[in-house]
Sequence to fold (396 residues):
Amino acid sequence: MQHDIYVAGAGMTTFGKQLERGLRSLAEEAVRDALADAGAGPEVVDHVFFANAVAGLITGQACVPGQVALRHTGLLGIPIVNVENACASGSTAFGLACTQLMAGTADVVMVVGAEKLSHADKARSFAAFSAGYDQEEPPSAAPPAVEGAPTRSVFMDVYAQMAHQYMARSGAVAEDFAQVAVKAHRHGALNPKAQYGDPLTVDGVLGSRTIVDPLTLMMCSPLSDGAAALVLANERGLKRLNADPVRVLAATLVSGRDRTNGDRTAVERAARDAYEVAGVAAADIDVIELHDAAAPAELIVSEELGLCEPGGGPELLRSGATTIGGRVPINPSGGLLSKGHPVGATGCAQIVELVDQLRGRCGGRQVEGAKIALAENGGGYLENDAAVATVTILAR
Fold:
């Protein structure tokens, strides 16, 4: 980063199916808590980036979701920019806030990610995911259109295809994917904001209902509602706050592309850029939140981030290195599998967790001595790559 940028406040709601709450209620709670954490009121904020992915499809609220959701927070009147970038909407908004602070056109910027994904008609929620890929050239993994309502997210078909490819090149087996889910729920049980924290066993995960082979129900992230918010500031902005800041070392974003001849994936490119900007290497990272919308993703992304050699994801997991108490804990929050996945809020929530980890306030899931943290957030899908990938690195 050319100028020092800090996360000065962080807050989030509990994630889960909250049919009785609207997008506004969720956003208001996260904003309130993030501002309180930063030691200031809404009057100090210069600019807001509001992340949401599917409100237009779920609730019908399109075009101005941020202005509507934040109408009664005290933030209305300042610039509010709505950000939609699939499951990476929240981390994209975070990156835009960093860019503005670096440009010096604002000193305190708020980032809010909020999503109302659950609906009384579950098929409506599942159908929204189909908007996350090219409608004219859908990926080969997308199932053909059939009569009736969808019974699952189309992205589980995508992840199933990725899982089979990964198993062929790495030697991973279904038990490895089950162990990822077991670990996620063990971590989630320590997070009061997580959607699920019930204990799982490998046999229980393998025995749960098959969604798309090799994925079972417990290997897939749930439908979730929730919001997360962050207050960012430069050094001038910190003077307006009473904060315990965490420094932003890097916030990179790339779009996916049609990969040929072994081109790097979007996550690999975003990670490479982030390490270069931050001046750190994969071996320096103490704690990670990554986008495990389905269990195989943890193993795939751990390789893409350079935590191990290609094909080494299963052994990294089996070694215990990625559990709390291990060398590089992954998803101490419970990840998307346990904490939940309210799409537009997910990227912000990852950063909320890492800010709390670096401040040492995560209780039973605290990663001792954490000084450098990384978040990876992906969104959408092309034929053989994520449509967007972001990597954020924070330091204490």
Q: What stands out?
A: The chain has two domains: 5-120+225-247, 153-222+251-395. The two ends are 15 Å apart (CA to CA).
